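We give the chain.
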Amino acid sequence: MVLARMSVWHFKNGKRESAFLELDRILNISTRHTKGFRGYMSLLSVDDSNTATILTLWQDDESLKASEGGVFAEAIKKVQDSLASSPYIEHYRVFSTELFQRSE
């Protein structure tokens, strides 16, 4: 069963772009070697220029919980000064997913 953590990040005015580049870098480097990591998606809000959402996928509950004290804690620490508030977090059981690219 694959699990997901959705974290919604609220940044101080004008801080989203630089802080989110740092978050994306952490995800690209740190998660690749994290047990149970299955992938992620980074979303920048079109409606709120200070908000971003990260969806990470984990193989099981053990991996998801372990990441909270590892990769996730590291990410918060790195961008703490740019945050307006702590990220809002929800956990999900992945029911289905399909990603594809079209060449046009």
